[in-house]
Amino acid sequence: MAASSRAFVLRHTTLGPVPGVDGIRLHLGAEVLPLWHAVQVETGDPDAALPYWAFAWGGGLALARYLADHPEAVSGRRIVDVASGSGLCAIAAMHAGASDATAIDVDTFSVAAIALNARANGVRVTAIRRDVLDEGPPDADVLLAADCWYEAGLAARVTPWLMRARDHGLDVLVGDPGRRYLPTADLEEIACYEVRTTTELEDLDRKQAWVYRLRR
Ligand SMILES: C[S@@+](CC[C@H](N)C(=O)[O-])C[C@H]1O[C@@H](n2cnc3c(N)ncnc32)[C@H](O)[C@@H]1O
Protein backbone atom coordinates (compact mmCIF):
# COMPACT_ATOMS: atom_id res chain seq x y z
CA MET A 1 0.00 0.00 0.00
CA ALA A 2 1.42 3.41 -0.91
CA ALA A 3 2.17 5.23 2.34
CA SER A 4 0.68 8.43 0.92
CA SER A 5 -2.68 6.75 0.16
CA ARG A 6 -2.79 5.30 3.65
CA ALA A 7 -2.01 8.70 5.19
CA PHE A 8 -4.67 10.33 3.00
CA VAL A 9 -7.34 7.87 4.11
CA LEU A 10 -6.41 8.34 7.77
CA ARG A 11 -6.41 12.13 7.43
CA HIS A 12 -9.86 12.31 5.82
CA THR A 13 -11.83 9.67 7.72
CA THR A 14 -12.86 8.74 11.24
CA LEU A 15 -12.91 5.18 12.52
CA GLY A 16 -16.40 4.39 13.77
CA PRO A 17 -19.32 1.98 13.77
CA VAL A 18 -21.32 1.12 10.65
CA PRO A 19 -25.02 1.87 11.21
CA GLY A 20 -26.98 -1.37 11.36
CA VAL A 21 -23.96 -3.65 11.00
CA ASP A 22 -22.95 -4.84 14.43
CA GLY A 23 -19.33 -5.45 15.25
CA ILE A 24 -17.70 -3.78 12.24
CA ARG A 25 -15.94 -0.42 12.33
CA LEU A 26 -14.77 1.43 9.24
CA HIS A 27 -12.75 4.52 8.42
CA LEU A 28 -15.63 6.64 7.13
CA GLY A 29 -15.84 10.06 5.53
CA ALA A 30 -18.31 12.74 6.57
CA GLU A 31 -19.11 14.86 3.52
CA VAL A 32 -18.63 13.50 0.03
CA LEU A 33 -18.00 16.68 -1.97
CA PRO A 34 -15.18 18.18 0.15
CA LEU A 35 -13.54 14.74 0.27
CA TRP A 36 -13.88 14.32 -3.49
CA HIS A 37 -12.24 17.73 -3.92
CA ALA A 38 -9.40 16.64 -1.62
CA VAL A 39 -8.92 13.51 -3.79
CA GLN A 40 -8.75 15.68 -6.92
CA VAL A 41 -6.13 17.92 -5.30
CA GLU A 42 -4.14 14.96 -3.92
CA THR A 43 -4.06 13.15 -7.28
CA GLY A 44 -3.88 16.26 -9.48
CA ASP A 45 -6.69 14.65 -11.46
CA PRO A 46 -9.90 16.68 -11.94
CA ASP A 47 -11.58 13.48 -13.18
CA ALA A 48 -10.63 11.42 -10.11
CA ALA A 49 -13.31 8.94 -9.02
CA LEU A 50 -15.67 9.70 -6.17
CA PRO A 51 -14.28 8.51 -2.82
CA TYR A 52 -16.54 5.45 -2.77
CA TRP A 53 -14.14 3.81 -0.32
CA ALA A 54 -15.01 6.35 2.42
CA PHE A 55 -18.64 5.24 2.68
CA ALA A 56 -20.62 2.06 3.26
CA TRP A 57 -23.04 1.86 0.34
CA GLY A 58 -26.57 0.48 0.50
CA GLY A 59 -25.72 -2.73 -1.33
CA GLY A 60 -22.74 -3.42 0.91
CA LEU A 61 -24.75 -2.71 4.06
CA ALA A 62 -27.39 -5.27 3.02
CA LEU A 63 -24.87 -7.93 2.02
CA ALA A 64 -22.87 -7.45 5.23
CA ARG A 65 -26.08 -7.87 7.26
CA TYR A 66 -26.96 -11.00 5.27
CA LEU A 67 -23.56 -12.57 5.96
CA ALA A 68 -23.98 -11.91 9.70
CA ASP A 69 -27.44 -13.52 9.58
CA HIS A 70 -26.38 -16.41 7.32
CA PRO A 71 -22.73 -17.23 8.07
CA GLU A 72 -23.19 -20.62 6.39
CA ALA A 73 -23.09 -18.78 3.04
CA VAL A 74 -19.36 -18.18 3.45
CA SER A 75 -18.19 -20.17 6.47
CA GLY A 76 -15.06 -22.16 5.65
CA ARG A 77 -15.09 -20.87 2.07
CA ARG A 78 -12.75 -18.62 0.08
CA ILE A 79 -14.43 -15.37 -0.89
CA VAL A 80 -13.64 -12.59 -3.33
CA ASP A 81 -15.33 -9.20 -2.84
CA VAL A 82 -15.22 -7.33 -6.14
CA ALA A 83 -15.66 -3.54 -6.29
CA SER A 84 -15.02 -3.70 -2.58
CA GLY A 85 -14.85 0.04 -1.76
CA SER A 86 -14.20 0.13 1.98
CA GLY A 87 -13.83 -3.66 2.20
CA LEU A 88 -17.06 -3.91 4.21
CA CYS A 89 -18.30 -7.17 2.65
CA ALA A 90 -14.91 -8.88 2.77
CA ILE A 91 -14.63 -7.99 6.46
CA ALA A 92 -18.18 -9.20 7.11
CA ALA A 93 -17.34 -12.48 5.36
CA MET A 94 -14.29 -12.99 7.58
CA HIS A 95 -16.40 -12.28 10.67
CA ALA A 96 -18.85 -14.90 9.36
CA GLY A 97 -16.09 -17.51 9.18
CA ALA A 98 -14.77 -17.33 5.61
CA SER A 99 -11.46 -19.16 5.31
CA ASP A 100 -9.91 -16.27 3.44
CA ALA A 101 -10.98 -13.06 1.77
CA THR A 102 -9.66 -11.10 -1.18
CA ALA A 103 -11.01 -7.61 -1.83
CA ILE A 104 -10.55 -6.13 -5.29
CA ASP A 105 -11.04 -2.55 -6.43
CA VAL A 106 -9.60 -0.27 -9.09
CA ASP A 107 -9.08 2.69 -6.74
CA THR A 108 -5.72 3.13 -5.00
CA PHE A 109 -7.36 4.79 -2.00
CA SER A 110 -9.81 1.92 -1.76
CA VAL A 111 -6.98 -0.59 -1.43
CA ALA A 112 -5.46 1.56 1.33
CA ALA A 113 -8.85 1.84 3.07
CA ILE A 114 -9.47 -1.92 2.84
CA ALA A 115 -6.13 -2.65 4.51
CA LEU A 116 -6.78 -0.12 7.27
CA ASN A 117 -10.34 -1.34 7.79
CA ALA A 118 -9.31 -5.01 7.89
CA ARG A 119 -6.71 -4.21 10.51
CA ALA A 120 -9.22 -2.16 12.56
CA ASN A 121 -11.51 -5.21 12.63
CA GLY A 122 -8.78 -7.73 13.41
CA VAL A 123 -9.19 -9.75 10.20
CA ARG A 124 -6.88 -10.61 7.34
CA VAL A 125 -8.06 -9.43 3.92
CA THR A 126 -5.87 -9.43 0.82
CA ALA A 127 -6.48 -6.10 -0.93
CA ILE A 128 -5.75 -5.97 -4.65
CA ARG A 129 -5.89 -2.98 -6.96
CA ARG A 130 -6.74 -4.36 -10.38
CA ASP A 131 -9.45 -4.39 -12.98
CA VAL A 132 -10.24 -8.12 -13.18
CA LEU A 133 -13.43 -7.83 -15.20
CA ASP A 134 -11.77 -8.96 -18.45
CA GLU A 135 -10.07 -11.89 -16.71
CA GLY A 136 -11.28 -15.41 -16.00
CA PRO A 137 -13.04 -16.35 -12.75
CA PRO A 138 -10.93 -16.00 -9.59
CA ASP A 139 -9.76 -19.02 -7.60
CA ALA A 140 -12.47 -18.80 -4.94
CA ASP A 141 -15.72 -20.41 -3.76
CA VAL A 142 -17.98 -17.37 -3.34
CA LEU A 143 -18.04 -14.03 -5.14
CA LEU A 144 -19.51 -10.98 -3.40
CA ALA A 145 -20.56 -7.96 -5.45
CA ALA A 146 -22.27 -5.04 -3.73
CA ASP A 147 -23.53 -1.82 -5.27
CA CYS A 148 -21.94 -2.25 -8.70
CA TRP A 149 -24.97 -1.32 -10.83
CA TYR A 150 -25.06 2.46 -10.40
CA GLU A 151 -23.62 3.22 -13.83
CA ALA A 152 -24.05 1.56 -17.20
CA GLY A 153 -20.38 1.01 -18.06
CA LEU A 154 -19.51 -0.92 -14.90
CA ALA A 155 -22.82 -2.81 -14.96
CA ALA A 156 -22.20 -3.97 -18.55
CA ARG A 157 -18.88 -5.49 -17.51
CA VAL A 158 -19.51 -6.80 -14.02
CA THR A 159 -22.68 -8.76 -14.86
CA PRO A 160 -21.12 -11.04 -17.54
CA TRP A 161 -18.02 -11.49 -15.38
CA LEU A 162 -20.16 -12.70 -12.48
CA MET A 163 -22.11 -14.97 -14.83
CA ARG A 164 -18.90 -16.56 -16.12
CA ALA A 165 -17.81 -17.15 -12.54
CA ARG A 166 -21.17 -18.74 -11.72
CA ASP A 167 -20.87 -21.00 -14.80
CA HIS A 168 -17.45 -21.98 -13.46
CA GLY A 169 -19.10 -23.19 -10.24
CA LEU A 170 -18.74 -20.19 -7.90
CA ASP A 171 -21.65 -18.98 -5.79
CA VAL A 172 -22.38 -15.32 -6.51
CA LEU A 173 -24.05 -13.08 -3.91
CA VAL A 174 -25.13 -9.57 -4.79
CA GLY A 175 -26.20 -6.62 -2.60
CA ASP A 176 -28.07 -3.74 -4.18
CA PRO A 177 -30.42 -0.91 -3.13
CA GLY A 178 -32.40 -0.81 -6.40
CA ARG A 179 -29.85 0.71 -8.77
CA ARG A 180 -30.94 1.38 -12.30
CA TYR A 181 -28.71 -1.14 -14.11
CA LEU A 182 -29.25 -4.18 -11.87
CA PRO A 183 -30.00 -7.26 -14.04
CA THR A 184 -32.96 -8.40 -11.93
CA ALA A 185 -34.04 -11.17 -14.34
CA ASP A 186 -30.85 -13.08 -13.58
CA LEU A 187 -31.17 -12.72 -9.82
CA GLU A 188 -33.04 -14.63 -7.13
CA GLU A 189 -33.96 -12.43 -4.14
CA ILE A 190 -32.88 -14.03 -0.86
CA ALA A 191 -33.18 -11.17 1.65
CA CYS A 192 -34.30 -7.57 2.06
CA TYR A 193 -33.10 -5.09 4.69
CA GLU A 194 -33.77 -1.51 5.62
CA VAL A 195 -30.33 0.08 5.60
CA ARG A 196 -29.19 3.34 7.11
CA THR A 197 -27.14 5.30 4.64
CA THR A 198 -26.71 9.06 4.36
CA THR A 199 -28.21 11.86 2.31
CA GLU A 200 -24.61 12.68 1.39
CA LEU A 201 -24.96 9.73 -0.99
CA GLU A 202 -28.65 8.98 -1.49
CA ASP A 203 -31.98 10.75 -1.72
CA LEU A 204 -33.08 9.23 1.62
CA ASP A 205 -31.09 8.25 4.70
CA ARG A 206 -33.02 4.99 5.06
CA LYS A 207 -33.44 2.74 2.07
CA GLN A 208 -34.44 -0.79 1.27
CA ALA A 209 -31.65 -2.92 -0.08
CA TRP A 210 -31.77 -6.47 -1.32
CA VAL A 211 -29.52 -9.49 -1.36
CA TYR A 212 -29.64 -11.79 -4.35
CA ARG A 213 -28.10 -14.99 -5.58
CA LEU A 214 -27.19 -15.16 -9.25
CA ARG A 215 -29.48 -17.83 -10.71
CA ARG A 216 -27.90 -21.02 -11.97
C1 LIG B 1 -20.67 2.16 -4.97
S1 LIG B 1 -19.09 1.53 -4.57
C2 LIG B 1 -19.51 0.03 -3.68
C3 LIG B 1 -18.48 -0.33 -2.64
C4 LIG B 1 -18.85 -1.49 -1.72
N1 LIG B 1 -19.04 -2.71 -2.47
C5 LIG B 1 -20.08 -1.16 -0.89
O1 LIG B 1 -21.17 -1.67 -1.19
O2 LIG B 1 -19.95 -0.36 0.05
C6 LIG B 1 -18.51 0.86 -6.13
C7 LIG B 1 -17.04 0.46 -6.15
O3 LIG B 1 -16.73 -0.12 -7.43
C8 LIG B 1 -15.38 0.17 -7.71
N2 LIG B 1 -15.13 -0.12 -9.13
C9 LIG B 1 -15.48 0.60 -10.22
N3 LIG B 1 -15.08 -0.02 -11.35
C10 LIG B 1 -14.45 -1.17 -10.96
C11 LIG B 1 -13.83 -2.25 -11.66
N4 LIG B 1 -13.73 -2.28 -12.99
N5 LIG B 1 -13.30 -3.27 -10.94
C12 LIG B 1 -13.37 -3.25 -9.58
N6 LIG B 1 -13.94 -2.26 -8.87
C13 LIG B 1 -14.49 -1.24 -9.54
C14 LIG B 1 -15.25 1.62 -7.29
O4 LIG B 1 -13.91 2.02 -7.15
C15 LIG B 1 -16.04 1.60 -5.99
O5 LIG B 1 -15.20 1.34 -4.88
Q: Beta-sheet strand percentage?
A: 25-35%
What overall form do the CA principal axes indicate?
Answer: globular
Radius of gyration: 16 Å
End-to-end Cα distance: 37 Å
Helical stretch tally: 6
By oligomeric state, this entry counts as: single chain
- Order of neighbouring strands in the sheet with most strands: 5-4-3-6-7-9-8
Secondary-structure element pattern, one letter each: HEEHHEHEHEEHEEE
The percentage helix is 25-40%
Mean pLDDT: 96
State the total count of DSSP E strands. Answer: 9
| Category by helix and strand content | alpha/beta
Bound molecules: S-adenosylmethionine
Let me know the largest β-sheet: 7 strands, mixed
Question: Can you describe this structure?
Answer:
This protein has 216 residues and is α/β, with parallel strands linked by helices. Helices cover 33% and strands 27% of the residues. The chain has six helices and nine strands. A seven-stranded mixed sheet has the order 5-4-3-6-7-9-8, sandwiched between helices. A two-stranded antiparallel ribbon has the order 1-2. Strand 4 (100-105), helix 5 and strand 5 form a beta-alpha-beta unit. Helix 1 packs across helix 5 and helix 3 packs parallel to helix 4 (88-95). The longest helix is centred in the last third of the chain and has 16 residues, at 152-167. The mean pLDDT is 96. The site of S-adenosylmethionine (SAM) has 26 residues, from helix 3, helix 4 and strand 4.
Question: What's this entry about, in short?
Answer:
With 216 residues, the protein is α/β, with parallel strands linked by helices.
Q: Notable features of this structure?
A:
alpha/beta, 27% strand, binds S-adenosylmethionine, two-stranded antiparallel ribbon, 216 residues
